[in-house]
Design a protein that fits this description.
alpha/beta, 9 helices, two-stranded antiparallel sheet, six-stranded parallel sheet, 221 residues, 8 strands
């Protein structure tokens, strides 16, 4: 079975505002309630909770790894309470996945978001049924860019690794695909999360309307 494995944050959905809100909750305790900006810092949000905490610390001149370690679970707790307040799928994302299904291509998610949060978000957004497998950062003992989570996403959805590819938005996704040896489609939705000049993906996606044609072309090549 042919399979497309999607990253979640910044690839399938714009989760940046809800993630930044959770990070700002942590800095509120230091007197900086709106330290991170939803637009300016959206690209960092796509790299996860720790990256946001690190950026916030840089902004206020705080060099404290212990603070990041202590605040990370607090950030996750705050985020869990407002997973879908602002989050939306990118335009035509779900339509493209439905079309891929009609073309005989399964879809799976491989994210470095904790699995419980990823599962809950997909349920709240009414889209969990569209993905045959979901692998989070804590599903296995390793996470992306280690090949194991990607392979688990493919096999868990009934697919074959040699008939699969990755869709992502960061260097972690690029490195994952290269480690597995499968094609990589990088989205280009304006978050400046991937340097296209440094590494060349197999395809660049500017709209999900184009995804089915690109996927079929790569998997049939």
């Amino acid at each position: 079975m042919k399979t497309v494995v999607f990253d979640l944050d910044g690839t399938l959905a714009d989760t940046s505002a809800d993630l930044i809100s959770a990070a700002n909750f942590c800095f509120d305790s230091l007197g900086y309630p709106k330290l991170l900006d939803c637009k300016e810092d959206a690209g960092v949000a796509m790299r996860g909770g720790r990256a946001m905490l690190e950026l916030g610390c840089q902004k206020i001149g705080l060099n404290d790894e212990q603070f990041i370690h202590q605040q990370y679970p607090i950030l996750l707790s705050a985020y869990s309470k407002s997973l879908d307040k602002h989050t939306q799928f990118f335009p035509y994302a779900l339509d493209s996945i439905r079309k891929l299904q009609l073309l005989g291509v399964n879809s799976a998610i491989c994210t470095n978001k904790p699995s419980a949060l990823a599962e809950e978000l997909m349920v709240r957004l009414g889209a969990r049924h569209l993905f045959q497998e979901l692998i989070g950062s804590d599903t296995l003992s390793s996470k992306k860019p280690d090949p194991a989570p990607f392979i688990a996403a493919v096999t868990g959805s009934g697919g074959l690794v040699e008939q699969s590819l990755m869709v992502g938005d960061t260097s972690t996704d690029f490195d994952t695909a290269k480690a597995v040896g499968v094609p990589i489609i990088m989205v280009d939705f304006g978050f400046a999360g991937f340097d296209f000049s440094a590494s060349k993906p197999d395809a660049i996606l500017k709209s999900f309307l184009d995804l089915p044609e690109i996927v079929i072309g790569l998997l049939n090549s």
